[in-house]
Amino acid sequence: MAVINFGGVEENVVTREEFPLAKAREVLKNETIAIIGYGVQGPGQALNLRDNGFNVIVGQRKNSKTWDKAVADGWVEGKTLFDIEEACAKGTIIQYLLSDAGQIALWDTVKKYLTAGKALYFSHGFGITFKEQTGIIPPADIDVILIAPKGSGTSLRRLFLAGEGLNSSYAIYQDATGRAKERVHALGIGVGSGYLFETTFQKEVYSDLTGERGTLMGAIEGIFEAQYALLREKGHSPSEAFNETVEEFTQSLIKLVAENGMDWMYANCSTTAQRGALDWRHKFREATAPVFRELYESVASGKEAEITIKANSQPDYREKLEKELADLRNSEMWQTGRVVRSLRPKS
Ligand SMILES: NC(=O)C1=CN([C@@H]2O[C@H](COP(=O)(O)OP(=O)(O)OC[C@H]3O[C@@H](n4cnc5c(N)ncnc54)[C@H](O)[C@@H]3O)[C@@H](O)[C@H]2O)C=CC1
Ligand SMILES: CC(=O)[C@](C)(O)C(=O)O
Ligand SMILES: [Mg+2]
Ligand SMILES: [Mg+2]
């Protein structure tokens, strides 16, 4: 394990140098990896594992849209594509990649196939950490491990195909076989991660739920909405409000942050912008700090889990989510965005 210094704090990191793909294949050569669920993470991980030379099968509900998607991706019924129970029976490693609510619904079915020595794999600490609410309590004689790619399954696949990768965090909750560590490291490399950061199931889920509700998804949209609405109220046109709120951010500035950090982005903007941004960040930090604190408490108390489970266990949860996404899409800001995107100069 490499020890890497992150801004003055040392952390354990597994690297491809110490755990190359050939070693991962050797560790898993006698295993059948059953990917249960073919939503977003399922396809990304299953296809990367398959292309990396592992023995992979997919388990998915028949007569579903995602079954058809699996067929279109080259999984063959009866050979590499099965219904969920059959895949669980065949797999020695069960990658439980149903939605977090779906994992609860299917748990009693899947549990039957978790015989001694198998490994149960998650990409989120949700089911195990909130076990009082999920009822997901694995038998003691199996390994329970986690690889959580730090991004969408779509990006995991795209970056793999581009010869790059997404990094992941990993955790071991239960090591019944003495092989949990080599299994989890091999799977992490196998799904296409370059580096594996050590964590626990609880830390993974607390930080992940905070991040997606916060700066990665929830907070960013909230801040965009607030600024856009203000500019419109003050008489700015939709295109101007959108450009100064979203377009410049996604097309120019955030790319500079990704490349070389915030100071690099600032340094490539005017000294006028730098003066103002360096001053105003303090106000924004102080204004949002209490909201982030409230969010973390809601995660750690299990309230966010409760809300998610309740909503996403309804039979029409997808239609409801789609309706809310359509409301976002149809807002003036994102309709303006649609037009602005179509006007991006192309060579
Ligand atoms: N979406 C992503 O890119 C990321 C997801 N994760 C985690 O990976 C896991 C899988 O997430 P996603 O791929 O987003 O899931 P998803 O919401 O796309 O669902 C995955 C599959 O579960 C099936 N499913 C849902 N409810 C079911 C039920 N009641 N019975 C049978 N099948 C059911 C769906 O048909 C789908 O094939 C979750 O633990 C999630 O938190 C982690 C990192 C990123
Ligand atoms: C893509 C990811 O890692 C998220 C945002 O946490 C998720 O999809 O749950
Ligand atoms: Mg995440
Ligand atoms: Mg998440």
From TrEMBL:
<keyword id="KW-0460">Magnesium</keyword>
<protein>
    <recommendedName>
        <fullName>Ketol-acid reductoisomerase</fullName>
        <ecNumber>1.1.1.86</ecNumber>
    </recommendedName>
</protein>
<dbReference type="GO" id="GO:0046872">
    <property type="term" value="F:metal ion binding"/>
</dbReference>
<comment type="pathway">
    <text>Amino-acid biosynthesis; L-isoleucine biosynthesis; L-isoleucine from 2-oxobutanoate: step 2/4.</text>
</comment>
<feature type="binding site">
    <location>
        <position position="244"/>
    </location>
    <ligand>
        <name>Mg(2+) 2</name>
    </ligand>
</feature>
<feature type="domain" description="KARI C-terminal knotted">
    <location>
        <begin position="200"/>
        <end position="347"/>
    </location>
</feature>
<keyword id="KW-0028">Amino-acid biosynthesis</keyword>
<dbReference type="InterPro" id="IPR036291">
    <property type="entry name" value="NAD(P)-bd_dom_sf"/>
</dbReference>
<dbReference type="Pfam" id="PF01450">
    <property type="entry name" value="KARI_C"/>
</dbReference>
<dbReference type="InterPro" id="IPR013328">
    <property type="entry name" value="6PGD_dom2"/>
</dbReference>
<dbReference type="Pfam" id="PF07991">
    <property type="entry name" value="KARI_N"/>
</dbReference>
<feature type="binding site">
    <location>
        <position position="212"/>
    </location>
    <ligand>
        <name>Mg(2+) 1</name>
    </ligand>
</feature>
<dbReference type="InterPro" id="IPR000506">
    <property type="entry name" value="KARI_C"/>
</dbReference>
<keyword id="KW-0479">Metal-binding</keyword>
<feature type="binding site">
    <location>
        <position position="208"/>
    </location>
    <ligand>
        <name>Mg(2+) 1</name>
    </ligand>
</feature>
<dbReference type="InterPro" id="IPR013023">
    <property type="entry name" value="KARI"/>
</dbReference>
<feature type="domain" description="KARI N-terminal Rossmann">
    <location>
        <begin position="9"/>
        <end position="199"/>
    </location>
</feature>
<dbReference type="InterPro" id="IPR013116">
    <property type="entry name" value="KARI_N"/>
</dbReference>
<dbReference type="GO" id="GO:0009099">
    <property type="term" value="P:L-valine biosynthetic process"/>
</dbReference>
<dbReference type="GO" id="GO:0016853">
    <property type="term" value="F:isomerase activity"/>
</dbReference>
<feature type="binding site">
    <location>
        <position position="270"/>
    </location>
    <ligand>
        <name>substrate</name>
    </ligand>
</feature>
<dbReference type="GO" id="GO:0009097">
    <property type="term" value="P:isoleucine biosynthetic process"/>
</dbReference>
<keyword id="KW-0560">Oxidoreductase</keyword>
<feature type="binding site">
    <location>
        <position position="248"/>
    </location>
    <ligand>
        <name>Mg(2+) 2</name>
    </ligand>
</feature>
<comment type="similarity">
    <text>Belongs to the ketol-acid reductoisomerase family.</text>
</comment>
<keyword id="KW-0413">Isomerase</keyword>
<keyword id="KW-0100">Branched-chain amino acid biosynthesis</keyword>
<dbReference type="GO" id="GO:0004455">
    <property type="term" value="F:ketol-acid reductoisomerase activity"/>
</dbReference>
<dbReference type="InterPro" id="IPR008927">
    <property type="entry name" value="6-PGluconate_DH-like_C_sf"/>
</dbReference>
<feature type="binding site">
    <location>
        <position position="208"/>
    </location>
    <ligand>
        <name>Mg(2+) 2</name>
    </ligand>
</feature>
<comment type="pathway">
    <text>Amino-acid biosynthesis; L-valine biosynthesis; L-valine from pyruvate: step 2/4.</text>
</comment>
